[in-house]
Amino acid sequence: MEPFKIHILGCGSALPTLRHYASSQVVEIREKVLMLDCAEGAQMQLRKCRVRFTKLSHVFITHLHGDHCFGLLGMISTFGLLGRTAPLHIHAPKALGPELDRQIKFFTHDLGYEIVFYPVDTTERQVVYEDRSMMVESIPLEHRVPCCGYLITEKPSLPHIRRDMMDCYGIPMSQVGNIKNGADWVTDDGEIIPNARLVRPADPPRSYAYMTDTRYMPNLHEQLKGVTTLYHESTYGMDNLLQAEKYYHSTARQAGTVARDAGVGKLLLGHYSSRYEDEEVLLKEAKEVFDNTFLTSEMAVFDA
User: For binding Zn(2+) 2, which residues are annotated in this chain's numbering (predicted)?
Assistant: First the structure.
């Protein structure tokens, strides 16, 4: 099975602490590297997690609060100093486009590579990036500024060849592609070997939903049905429900409710308020609703 890994670079919220960096993640999927949000310090965390800078091709920004995008310009500048030549594709709310362009012109000179900006309409679910192996969609969220989450989905892969059957019927390796694409095999004696005997089913497609800063949305689960892994912000516990409602954030219990109602495989919590010195209280709260829940932490790695 091809890697589909989520690297946590930061899982804190807006107020800096000595325990957590602000929001940023890196996703490795089928030899590609994507970044979800780019908070202050993200490039230092990227070095620590040992994901190669050169493989990072796309950055997806959820909204224009500093704890989700203050690290972007610094990372862009560093890539230039490192001699990057490949374009860097940035997907974000459209208001970031002209501001980012202004800052790049002001702070960097002869960057050496192209920044390609794609405005994202945070009010609609839409495909914001797609290639042969995966698709990234925006999911509208409800926060104090325009905001969306992102859903990364693998496209179905081809079935697995049964090597024992290939050997049994003396099928040459040159036919692997045809058989993976559904062809039968005809022996020298004219016997037709059905394709179903020559392959094993393909791995089921995996998906990862990154749902950060949002108030509890009772219908959000309808957008996330059957997702393999869900990250949902859990800034507060129910002890601070009024704060969550005031600032358009969610509690850990509400995150668990979304995960349960969507029927996801597992839930990752993050975007912790600085008032919690021990996030176990948030984990306990979410697990009361959805048991297969995990706390994120810096440098943790999860399979989608």
Answer: 67-68, 213, 271
